[in-house]
Amino acid sequence: MIEHLPVLLVVLPIVGGSIPLVASLVSERAGWPVATLTLIGQASLAGLLAWTVSTSGTVSYAVGGFAAPYGIELVVDGLSGAVALFVAVVSLGVLAYARQAGPHSSAFYGLYLLLVAGLTGMTVTGDVFNLYVFLEITGLAAYGLVASGRDASAAVAALKYLIIGTVGASLYLLGVGYLLAATGTLNMADLATKLGEMAAYDSTLVLTAFGLMVGGLTVKVALFPLHTWQPDAYANAPDTVSAFISALVSTVSAYALARLLFSVFTVEFLTAVPVARWALVGLACVSIIAGSALAVSQDSVQRMLAYSSVSQFGLVVAGFAIATPLAVVGATVHLLGHAVMKGGLFAATGVIERKTGATTVNGYAGMGSRVPLSAFCFAVLSLAMVGVPPAVGFVGKWYIVLGAVSAGNWPVVAVLLASTLLTLAYFARLVERLYFAEATIHSEEGLSEEAPVTDGSGQAVSFGMIAVVVIAAALAVALTAAVPAFEQVLRETLPQLLTQ
Amino acid sequence: MLELLNSHYNYYAVMLLLGIGLYMLIESQNLVKKVIGMNIFQTGIFLFFITLAFRAGGNPPIIVDGGGPYVSPLPHVLILTAIVVGVSLTAVALALIIRIYTEYGTLDEDKLKQLYYD
Q1: Which of A287, A488, B24, B69 could link A223 by a cystine bridge, Cβ 3.0 to 4.6 Å?
Q2: What is the ipTM of this complex?
């Protein structure tokens, strides 16, 4: 049992995800309890696995008993163990929000668990083709979840997401083909060894593979020119789904990108082919600036948050591409911290919209006194995202900047510092409206003017929804205390990653 | 030149399919045709993998009839999986298109854009 933990992490949510569909024959409300039980199990398994990894080192598992370079291998080290646990805990937390915010159909919870399975699979896999399969499982579940809004605009957003996402994943698959042609293997560790032995980092095959695979994944991460699916998907999906996918889908894709950089191509590749590193750093910097500029010009709060993700993921990818230990620690901290903060912000917009009908930046004026708790949490999360010191957003950015300084990458340092100001530009505007502006929406008339949420699950706000927002805000500050311990875990994992 | 064309025609077909698929995906105004373009694009990738597996004079990779170099079975297996993924994607895409059509009454991208932003 215990040695099968890595594969159980993927199997459990898939099995759990098929139960609500069967149970819906009996009761349409069976979805939530089944999902909760499954994810409690998932979180305990992930916790147990993370514990095993931290005490006795990397766990690897040969699926179906086929030995590593030929069969599919699942590998859990400090980094993937932490991400798998994070995925399980966050998805369990979002369920508390979904209880009231809906959608309530059993199919929704089936897709929800399928998405957890896909994300966990992407986290633990040690095989590049297997990563493609989990990438598509994640994608399919996410398209379905975005479309689960009752409004037809959700279907349009989902189709756009599907078409762009599929092209991204297909480019990744094409890259896997080039890599297979170059080395004859698909196992990540084996690929790293073979690529090192061949000493042909700058061969056309390997370069093409790198370009296609990284390009494909950046579509899923939503870096600047490839981000166009994201604002529509986040803004049109039901609030539960916005909170869930903004917290996890791009995050795990960025983690997969890091895996690809460090476990497949390795840092030697980045050193041997400076143009690859510069292309990635350049893309990240453009994404930081353009994402912020687009966020400042948005009127809808949810679209602003979506463009803010484009900019923040630019920061994370820049940290990974710089690839000094400090920068990688910073990028990982910011990756997970951003997930908590962005998920919390989307959850807060849902609560505020249900209570007051406000969805736009101007509509948020004066809400500080109308919905004090949610507005306060929103402000805390916003300031954490900007990087005000005690919050986790500060630590991540600080480490990334220190990493860039130690790598002597001055243009990047300038962009990173400017990005903090730009983040402040769009969040300060909103916080100012919340607390220091005359209300533009007054109690009852506002509800009729602004279109109410359209997933048809009522306007009531439950205790669970508020709790999720408050916990996210508290975590955004409290996680800072966990950073030293997390850094310790990473420092044990990173030397293998960075000096393979 | 002719020699290269003769020995690499599979790869030219791959590039042609990828190009046609991507062009249709971007340029066609009709949502269903976009999905067809997506399928053609993926077919190009499938053909690329199958071509990778080829080996001159290779036998089918079944060991019973003995001997000889075999073609690589691995890409075939990968593509079986990728085809299943492709079919599921097409199914989801078509389901979304049906929903869009019942709601907006059009499959034309430009008209849909006008309705969508109103």
Answers
A1: A287
A2: 0.93
Of A147, A152, A166, the CB nearest to B104: A152
d(C-alpha A385, C-alpha A332), whole Å? 15
**Contacts of residue A35, Cβ cutoff 8 Å, sequence gap at least 6:** A16, A20, A95, A109, A112, A113
- When pLDDT is cut at 50, 70 and 90, the band that residue A451 belongs to is very low
Neighbouring-strand partners of residue A62: A73
How far, in Å, CA of A181 to CA of A175, rounded? 10
User: How far is the C-alpha of A452 from the C-alpha of A356, rounded, in Å?
Assistant: 9
Q: What is the number of domains present in chain A?
A: 1
Interface check for B107 against chain A (CB to CB < 8 A): the answer is no
Structure tokens at A184: 């004859």
> In terms of C-beta density within 10 A (0-12 exposed, 13-18 middle, 19 or more buried), how is residue B109 classed?
middle
For chain B, domains (ranges, CATH) are 2-63+72-117 (1.10.287.3510)
Do A465 and A351 contact (CB within 8 A), yes or no? yes
Q: Does B74 touch chain A (CB under 8 A)?
A: yes
Domain with A51 in it? 2-498
What is the C-alpha separation between A328 and A419, in angstroms, rounded?
18
Taking Cα atoms as reference points, which of A426, A400, A205, A198 lies closest to residue A302?
A426
User: Looking at beta carbons, which residues of chain A come within 8 Å of B35?
Assistant: 163
Condensed to tens digits (0 to 9), the pLDDT of residues A177-210 reads 999 988 888 888 888 888 888 777 778 888 999 9
Residue A91 has pLDDT above 60, yes or no: yes
Contact A159 B93 (CB under 8 A): yes
Q: Buried (b) or exposed (e) across A99-128, using 16+ Cβ within 10 A?
A: bbbbbbebebbbbbbbbbbbbbbbbbbbbb
Q: What is the pTM of this model?
A: 0.91
